[in-house]
Amino acid sequence: MxxxxxxxEEERALQDIESAKDETSLESAYNAHLAKKGAxxxxxxxxxxxxxxxxAAFGKAINEAKQKVIxxxxxxxxxxxxxxxxxxxxxxxxxxxxxxxxxxxxxxNPYYQIIDEVSEIFLDMGYEIVEGRDVESDRFNFELLNVPxxxxxxxxxxxxxxxxxxxxxxxxxxxxxxxxTMLEKEVKTPIRMISPGKAYRRDDDDMTHSHQFAQxxxxxxxxxxxxxxxxxxxxxxxxKMFGEKREIRLRSSYFxxxxxxxxxxxxxxxxxxxxxxxxxxxGWIEILGAGMVNPKVLEMCGYDPKEWSxxxxxxxxxxxxxxxxxxxxxRRLYQNDIRFxxxxxxx
Length: 347
What we know:
This protein is α+β, with helices and mostly antiparallel strands. About 40% of the residues lie in helices and about 20% in strands. The chain has two domains: about 1-90; about 110-345, BirA Bifunctional Protein, domain 2 (2-Layer Sandwich), CATH 3.30.930.
């Protein structure tokens, strides 16, 4: 009777395992028959009630049944795993004859190209790069640059003030970094620095103006610095930036923080100075403003103007980019249009 019970349970277990369609149903069948409380395992509990002579044969029959069921379980498990892998590979099949997808190469905005090029030129001349602050005080943005309150020069720099007061503002020029640099030197030593960064002024958002723009301001302070040093420096910069054949000219101008002040033109690199629409048929293109540091600025920033002198200049990044790359609208520099970036990469 007991042997027949084992045989019947073995057949049920083998049938359930064989009919399993997936790993979940296979595990359920295994647990139903071979787990601690499974049907085959439960038969072992009957051995305590049997005659001693019958126990050995009964136990042997149960163990042999278990081994057959386990063997079939392992075989079925391997078959289901293989089937699952084959289905997965079939779904994820890759057609190696298809053409590869082209990788898009990133583009550098001309805005950053110009900043990098100008910075590299002046680093080669021994200048250091000083990071300025976008949010400035009125003192550093205006007063220490010889633009006191109610000065007419402020009318040209409609300003974004922060909060209800009139002290904090978005800087209108990166020149404020020059004042910081001079004042921070407890022991007065020579200075050769440039400060690239953004400046902010209320302006009409047309093709050539923007409320936000970038400047690269430069400052040199040393003994016996003259206008000739300024001209030689800017001439070298123009040749490095626009080509060895470029020449510059200085025109008298006015800036509160320099005296004398000059506008700097470079010979047109489009027509080689002969005259064209780009240079308005003059042969020259204005690129920056400069001048000798006003003695009053030196004095306010802790440098004795009787002992020290210097020059300063400011380059408009967008203006140089538009001239060098023939860009017709300043707003295109800020739009991150991939088509636009592709046109000007590497130029």
